[in-house]
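Follow-up to my post from last week.
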Amino acid sequence: AQRVTQPEKLLSVFKGAPVELKCNYSYSGSPELFWYVQYSRQRLQLLLRHISRESIKGFTADLNKGETSFHLKKPFAQEEDSAMYYCALSSSSASKIIFGSGTRLSIRP
Amino acid sequence: DTGVSQDPRHKITKRGQNVTFRCDPISEHNRLYWYRQTLGQGPEFLTYFQNEAQLEKSRLLSDRFSAERPKGSFSTLEIQRTEQGDSAMYLCASSSDRGQLSYTFGSGTRLTVV
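User reply:
Got it. Predicted complex:
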């Protein structure tokens, strides 16, 4: 069964500190992994996807098929990074996305 | 095009009543999705359409839920005989079947069943 696990409900770090939001997945096949973000009073939106291999707002995420993980990282947190972050997956041929339960990231000044 | 629109933004209804929500997707997107989100959880897939065809429904979706997309443009989600457990945020998203899969979400409809 497809499943996305985000073990941390809340992560609180100081401004300027490194950030790592954990995501593990269960999928028998070649998944496509995403991170979605929801800032306060805004819509859920795509942050990045593993296929693109790009850094968005300083965030990166590497797909580790051996550990079935797709952790989101940023070397220096900024206050505007405070938001709800959802890890998600789909199969390469599927048309729907499965979401994890989310991690609330709080950046302290 | 102002993105994905959902109406109403909020709905309070008495248990046992029927409710209907509307979603207007991005006009170029032929895929439309409905998700439900409860407090502390991520969006949970309910159903999706490609054009007017409903191609998949979650097994979690009870018979009280029905969705339509009659002309392949806007969609409606109806909940009959609402229960308190139906209280949630109902999210709509749209995407194109061309290129990489990428959702554009609406702001959602928050349903409260009292």
